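Reopening this ticket.

The earlier resolution said the output was attached, but the attachment link was broken on my side. Pasting everything inline this time so it's all in one place.
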Amino acid sequence: MAADEPDPADARTTLAPLPNHRNVGERWWQELWRRHTHITTPLRARGLPCDIEFGLSAYIVRVSLPDDSYLTISPPQEPPSERRPGDPEGWIVTREDPYVVTQYEVLYDSVPCDDEPGASPRPEARHGGSAAPLIAAIDHRLGQLGLLPAPATTHASAHPTPVQPTPSAQDTPGTPERGAAYVYGDAMRALTDRLNGAESHAEAAALLHQILEPTDGLLAQLGEFFEAAGEKAKEAEEDDGFDLSYDLADAAAEIRQLGEDLHVAEDRMRALTPLTPAPRAAPAQAPSLPPASPTASTSRRTR
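Inline output:
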């Protein structure tokens, strides 16, 4: 098999389809979807269709499961959260079955319980609105129930060797002006250099996988980073801290939306037909020179 041909045995990330209803084309719904991609994209990567609906007092994520039950991923509803959609102070995840009224289960609850008298602190409450522990809890429970259509993580067959970050500043000989070494920027620059030097579209696709994989890829982790930065800004309990947290949450949502928009770029890159280099033309031969004219003999006069 040629290096540029896709291997049918590869396990690649395929997202569950987008919802199919009239609201999908509305800008307000698209904005809501964008604000929830840090929840929906990892779940869709596991083969779980997601939708955004209005609950009791706030928008929720509804996740369809293979056994016809469903998950509801909700911010606080009673009283309603005062935070922006997609960025609540905590999440509640429940599983219900429309045909089995008695089936109701709380999978995860990270809503702060400070106002609940006598309530024992829940371990997940410390995670607040962070998405990663929520997804991990869903993975764990659905795995127990056999309701995960796809593995939690998928991998391309042609993973490049991990890029080694540049040593930290104190270990780097050279001028002190460099200050704190930009180890993550340097690692990204090294990845870009490898992409520039890729000898096949398959190799380029494997490098794209490092960026676009919806759970462990760079964009997903960058979204987590900005989300964490927003939470850190809130700790100041100042107006500007909250304003900054909203800006950072918007940045996280935009990064995740970018990953959503480009989720098929890896496969598209892999499917590209490699360019066949044009055959080199044979070097032009210099025209043969005409034969040299015979040198006329010069007769010498003798006296």
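Reporter confirms the inline version is readable. Helices lie at 27-35, 37-45, 131-145, 183-196, 201-212, 218-234, 239-261, 265-271. The radius of gyration is 30 Å.
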